[in-house]
Amino acid sequence: MTYTVKEVYYSLQGEGANTGRAAVFLRFAGCNLWTGREADRATAVCSLCDTDIVGTDGPGGGKFASAAELADAVAAKWRRADGDTAPRGSEAPGQGDAGPPGSRLVVCTGGEPALQLDDELIAALKARGFAVAIETNGTVASPDGLDWICVSPKVGTDLVQSRGDELKLVYPQDGVEPSQYEQLDFTHFWLQPLDGPDRDEHTELAVSYCLQHPRWRLSLQTHKILGIP
After folding, report:
1. Does 85 map to a domain?
2. Cis peptide preceding 89, ω within 30 of 0
3. What's the CATH number where 18 sits?
4. What's the pTM?
């Protein structure tokens, strides 16, 4: 399989339960809910996306002919950060375990990573010492063997991936209420304020909801606040 990748970079996780943790981000190009082109936003199933997912022109992006080649590119980003020359944290984490702080973590995101992430790539990443996390819209079943699953549901879609480690709902979304997801099998439930010109108002709404419904926790996009990738 050839993997089409927008970018591969090293940064801190800005959202959810792993906020502040160092990770390599593997962003796949393409999504099943919109083309990524502004001209198509108004007619897209998901019109909320704020990420460039078109093409392979981002840092570290490109076409990768094999799982081994892509896993090597991911490992190179981690080694470049700390001078590492061999896998660390190579003990396989258990399901629902992204590994201890300081161990290798790769976050597979997009676009929709479940369209490309497969068993072969997961095995190649784990062979290089990585715990493998996914950030998915949940409309495509995630492959087996993942160590951390974060699902961000979108209005107007059918949720296929109904279990995982965290459910992160962008809030508010017309036609979606957080309560409709509470019966699903997730450990963490997050509300993340919808970004844009009304972000302050959306943050107030999310804070108010979390205070009234303490099962939900507030997730902020701290990487945007800090100005890091």
Report:
1. yes
2. no
3. 3.20.20.70
4. 0.92
